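Internal ticket - ligand job 847, iron/sulfur cluster:
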Amino acid sequence: MTQEVKTRPLNRLKSMYALRAEVDKMYQAGGEAEAEGKPVAWVMLEGWANAILNAMDIITVFPENYSSLCAAQKLAGPFLERAETEGYPTHLCGYARACVGYSARMVELNGQIPPEAPAGGMPRPMLLVASGEVCDARFKWFQSLGRYFDAPVWTLESPSPNARESLTPGTYERNTQFLVNEIKQFVIFLEKLTGKKMEWDKLLFTGDGTNKINRLRWDINQLRKARPSPMHTRDFWSVMSAALYRGAADPTVIVEGNQKMYDEVKYRVDHGIAGINRPEKYRMSFEGLAPWHSLSFLDSLADRGWNFVCESAYSPGRPFKVDLSSVTDPVERYVRKRYRSLASVIEQEFEPEEASEVKEEIMREGSSNRLRLRHIREYQCDGVVLHVLLSCRSASSGLTLFADQLLDMYKVPSLIIEGDIIDTSLFNPVEAMKKAEAFEDTMDHYKKVRKDLGFEW
Amino acid sequence: MSAATKQGFARVQELYQDRTQRIKELKEEGKKIIGYLCIYPVTEIMTALDLVPYRVLGDMREPITKADAYLPSVVCPFLRSCLDLGLKGKYEFLDGVVTSHICDVGSSLSGIWRYTVKTPFHYNIDTPHTTHDTSLNQIKGVLKAYQTAMENFAGKKITNAKLKKAIILHNEQRALARELYELKKQDPPLVSGAETLKIIKVIQSIPVVEGNALLREVISEARTRKNKPAKKNARLLVWGSILDDTPLIEMIESLDANVVIDDTCVGSRPFFDDVKITPDLIDGLAQHYLVDIKCPRTFRARDFYAVKKNYLEDLKTRFSYLSDYAREWKANGVILQSVRYCDTHGYEVPQVRDYLKEIDLPGIYLEHDYTVGGLAPLKTRVQGFLEIIE
Ligand code: SF4
Ligand code: SF4
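stdout (structure tokens):
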């Protein structure tokens, strides 16, 4: 009889550790910047500001990421409680409330970093850069921090057209100009704030670095389509911070880190090595934001053969080429290299015939199931975990409809788990595990249904 | 024309009880009815095209049973209720729905509504988040695109004269609404808070011309009627997210308080500033809908380029109108209220409270779940609050 060797359920990528360490460096750099009297900005995650701030020698830290770090170390609780005593409703974004609690503590300590803050803490900001992207918290939260800091807030506007309006002629050009104009005003403000002139070459260099990182992340994600899938969602989450919240880190270091990761993942694909140390029984997608306080829940699922092969949040966009030969304005070049029209996204994602069907569907229905659900088909998922968050509507509001459409279109079932990004008290791992076990029967059932209907997986 | 026999307050009550009554008559007459969510869709453009704007509201008296399948319970129950009514066929008379980026979920409701309720025409106005000059410029383009979409839907073009006429008509409604609120400056007010809400709700459910006529009737009746509200100790300002029915106000007014002024959107918010008639009419509309309407969904600041923030100055810039309201309507207390899961108002609450402290006006915050039953526990808190009001 062979003796079963019990390894850890997850087969973590070695290249992940170095990239993850870059995030710690980002916080360290924040702390050092403060000691050296360098300007520090607190920034919401969005597409544009980081490179601009770095090009102006402003050190950037990301409270959104910092709150998740507090949660992962189970240290967010006291900050959340503090936000409540400050009068913030408890349904507001957990990241925001942890940040409010942190800010209130900082004021209490005359601007010092609270000693209980993990990873060296975030230094006091001289600027808050809010964002019009994704959710209301991204600008309302920073606006409300005026209670604690005399730092100015700049909300970097961003257009948010719905799918159908995006396809209306003129929308893309208007929105591109809006972004260009908005970024120019932001730069004027920063020049006034710092007394420095913007170095455009530096911006384009950092912007190019971001594009390179994005390409590698995209390529890595493509490799994850393999069977078995070589990289688990937990590794994706561990390294996404280095790309998205890299602060003032040299982009070339992150590029190198991602290149190493690409090589390692490729090796795994070539040798049939999976991201979990168990047979890949179920290929899963994680929809929504991570339960940062309870990530080990995914390890327990991996132990049962659940391999999370893709996820909806923080995914890199498909790289694209754009002809900028006639564009000389540096801001416009910066924007056009990264801002795409929905029409061109569809044209790249689908073959011509299907692309026009998708566009027609959007004009008729307002959205396209094929566009929204394509990763489930491409990664051949057997099931989906939907993480409905009490404190984030933006990541949760579409999930129930998503489940409905997914089952209807691809016969892939969804498991709804309620919880939170930050607040441990809102997640019941025992109950969630019971639901997950029962869900395996549902996935087995739909595997047969898909087979009978002639689906590819 | 309407076969309405009732007038003034009686007509308001009739339409409040069935606010679809008139709109269904108009539908039968062949009019096209456009539902709009929140106060950001530009109704003047609808009126200019002879389309009838009809405000989409929820129903806090009706349990949400169908929307659960499409919007999870962590979403603002007002939006869930609107969708629920749509799914139950209660908005089937609509020919179109116009939404805007009032808040993140409000904006995505457009797609969900389109997919599930299947109203024939939809448009979502991508209203920017700030009052930056670039945003003002942007919204002009956004509104022009919206105008084109509405023209295509209506199958006709808007002439400058028609749009100007529509703006004047809507401004007339704004002026009449302000006149109505003037009557609430008296002590006791000539119109109660609950009556005010009903009137505003009703005029958002009928064509603007008819709304204006009804407002005139109500104003003249309020001046002369005998059964006006009683004098109470507290004269309150109610601030916050949407309140589209009367139970909360009725609960407050069943105590020793009159609601004399509000800053809510089935209330004063859409009416206290006129749309300016500008050479390019879209400019005036853009200024009104992005800058002048004061709702927490928009990031406003006195000087975006200031390199240091002065919190007190910021509060004054954003909320001094509340102090004006309190002074002019002699309010001696403020009820801040919000439906649960409303983020834009939620972040604002501590700051409004800071401002009220600064101007020495007592305030209390009430969070509710958009059900009548959920209001009961709040009564004791309001009672306690009223006791501290002089
Ligand atoms: S998307 Fe959700 S979790 Fe992220 S900042 Fe916004 S509200 Fe918070
Ligand atoms: S009440 Fe708040 S969350 Fe609900 S629709 Fe209005 S702004 Fe959005």
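Auto-summary: The pocket of iron/sulfur cluster (ligand 1) is lined by residues A 64, 93, 95-96, 134-135, 137-138, 289, 392, 394-395, 421 (CB under 6 Å). Chain A touches chain B through 65 residues (CB under 8 Å).
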